């Protein structure tokens, strides 16, 4: 995961995606002789925050190490990383499983490192014979998160990644944009006979850029490994590439012949000390995490789980909703209107696409709560809002829906409905009090939605009980 700092991990260059190639570079991130790295404090704070959110133990004193290898997009010839003393270890997150329960997936470690540059193989007129190099990404701060081999199915892998990304986004430590490469994933997978005590030989699927592809790559890879073994062969420990167009993986290079990275402590950086102040700062930035927030909001707004997921899809949206709901007479009603009435009229619950603003929803909820409009009138107003692209207040002010607040007029209508439905009256008087809703509904319909709901409720109960 790329950390969302303004500048790079060890120099002052902008940490920005999409700049003109080789413009955000300096002697440090180009690895020129004599240039010395200076650690970005913000990167440490973000990595520490992410570690805490993943329930890791943060090491007070961790060590940067050089990971040596040659590649055209790595001008220094090494990456600054962490090896045997990473920033954080022994964490976990909760992941839902197929049977409706949750399981804990262990987080082995979270360590800090710097990104390499990018080789551009496509998009130039001479791409058939030339490769270009963009070094803007050199030195971008990364946190590498390694999980324990606790995941048992491609679906669990998908859920794990989804939850992990959600937590990181809530913490604001990364934009997790997979298309731009700020979140990347390597998935290791092996198969074994049911009950076998040891894991089989694993293969690693590298750099898959969407969670759906990770799931598909794992499904493919599991089948492939089973076929190899059942045909009497052996799975090779290797890195493989996922080809999304063909829906299969290809061998990239064998791990057995892979580099020895010759890790050794980075001589240009002292040990990283996470002070009590830095820990406190990271803890102070810790938001309410998505799982906890959903549980609280389900209780507070009486939401179904699926609705809680919708409202907490992003921290910004949940914040916006809750800030608005707090100002309303009934926050629960705001949730209900937002999800059902506004959400129902949109393809997805995206307020940018809605003519009705959050303030409009709050106003509508209050009018409903006070009985100043009926739910039918509300629906009619919202229909106009969506038809004409206007906010709630504008349409409400113009149309000022009529209400029947004359008790005798309502009573006459109630009498008619009661006379026409003797069976339902009998049921009500036999103890089925919920039947009152039927009569309210019938009168509301007869009044074309104009009956004052509070008064109507009161009169219906009085008539039926009398
Ligand atoms: Zn630089």
Structure, explained:
There is one protein chain. The chain has 15 helices and 15 strands. The protein has helices at residues 41-53, 154-171, 211-230, 276-284, 290-300, 305-311, 315-327, 331-345, 358-369, 375-388, 392-399, 407-420, 422-429, 436-446, 453-465; strands at residues 57-58, 61-62, 64-68, 78-82, 88-96, 102-114, 118-120, 132-134, 141-147, 185-189, 203-208, 238-243, 248-254, 264-265, 272-273. The chain has a four-stranded antiparallel beta sheet. Strands 10-11-12-13 form a four-stranded mixed beta sheet, with helices on one face. Strands 4-3-14 form a three-stranded antiparallel beta sheet, with no helix packed on it. Helix 1 packs across helix 4 and helix 7 (315-327) packs across helix 8. By secondary structure, the chain is of the alpha+beta class. The radius of gyration is 30 Å and the shape is elongated. The longest helix has 20 residues, at 211-230. The N and C termini lie far apart (69 Å). The protein binds zinc ion. Zinc ion binds at residues 8, 11, 13, 25-26, 28-29, 139.
How are helices and strands ordered from N to C? HEEEEEEEEEHEEHEEEEHHHHHHHHHHHH
Shape designation: elongated
Could you estimate the helical fraction of the residues in percent? Answer: 25-40%
Largest sheet: 4 strands, antiparallel
What distance separates the N and C termini?
A: 69 Å
Put simply, the count of helices is 15
Q: Got a strand count?
A: 15
Instruction: Identify low-pLDDT runs.
Output: none
Mean pLDDT rating = 92
Strand content: 15-25%
Instruction: Give me the side-by-side strand order of the main sheet.
Output: 1-5-6-9
Bound molecules: zinc ion
Strand-pairing-aware structural class:
alpha+beta
Cα radius of gyration in angstroms: 30 Å
